[in-house]
Design brief:
single chain; 262 residues; alpha+beta; D-Maltodextrin-Binding Protein, domain 2; 8-stranded mixed β-sheet; 5-stranded mixed β-sheet; 8 helices; 15 strands; globular
Length: 262
């Protein structure tokens, strides 16, 4: 059971990250390239450092997994998973589609999540048995159940391998239209009814640990591409849908081995 203090603490962490991020937004920052060639700035590092410090002070027995500064006590019962700027490329270019992601694992399973967009002051907070809110108001996904009318979002085709891209293109052909770009922000949009499907390949734990509780708390479904629940050991190929019926249809489309027509 989630401690009643955890959601408000997660929101506090998001507040701390906002302060660090907003004072550096649309400034001329030094851009460093990490080992995987992804960019990182002082905003990523400062925001994560502030959140980690707050966790250590409030819950020294909890674990922390962070994108920028690694892991401590990752086998603890409760583990906070931090992605201070998900969508660093958007942040660098001054686009307000990046988000701060804060997830909480209980025995390796995501149970609480925050998706925070600092510039637009949009914050989704959701979890197991908690529902999901957007700025304090209950959020609900679309009730759409058919692929043909579903709006799909994904960060970009360049993030898929050849096999994964073929699967996504199959799903894309079956849906109403596709919105490219958005990173974790897409999953907040899904939780509030703006999209019906969000799909990604090869995410890391810090990319999806916050997303699943937000989507599921709102009433949506989010699994891997095999339909399995997400957890610490998941590969990071994720599919989120507004309804169980839509998820079943999308999953069947992704898993299909039938050749595409046309």
């Amino acid at each position: 059971m989630i401690d009643k203090a955890f959601p408000s603490f997660a929101a506090h962490l998001a507040d701390l990250a906002r302060i660090e991020i907003l004072q550096l937004y649309r400034t001329r920052l030094v851009i460093d390239d990490k080992a995987d060639a992804s960019p990182v700035t002082l905003a990523d590092r400062n925001a994560e450092a502030m959140m980690r410090s707050a966790i250590e002070a409030a819950y020294p027995q909890h674990g922390i997994i962070g994108e920028e500064f690694g892991n401590v006590r990752e086998n603890a019962e409760w583990v906070w998973v931090l992605d201070p700027v998900d969508g660093t490329k958007s942040f660098i270019c001054g686009r307000a589609t990046f988000v701060t992601l804060i997830g909480l694992l209980h025995r390796g399973v995501p149970v609480l999540g925050v998706i925070d967009q600092p510039v637009m002051a949009e914050r989704w907070l959701g979890g197991v048995g908690l529902g999901t809110t957007l700025n304090g108001m209950l959020a609900f996904p679309s009730g759409e159940c058919t692929l043909a009318r579903a709006r799909m979002g994904s960060t970009g085709p360049e993030y898929y391998n050849a096999e994964g891209l073929a699967k996504v293109q199959r799903l894309q052909a079956a849906t109403r239209f596709t919105l490219w770009g958005g990173d974790g922000y897409l999953f907040g949009q899904l939780a509030s009814g703006g999209l019906e499907i969000a799909i990604e390949q090869g995410l890391k734990l810090h990319d999806f640990a916050a997303l699943a509780p937000v989507v599921q708390g709102a009433g949506g479904v989010m699994t891997d591409w095999q339909g399995r629940a997400l957890g610490m050991a998941s590969a990071g190929d994720v599919l989120a849908c507004a309804t169980p019926a839509l998820h079943a249809a999308a999953l069947a489309c992704v898993q299909s081995t039938e050749p595409m027509l046309g």
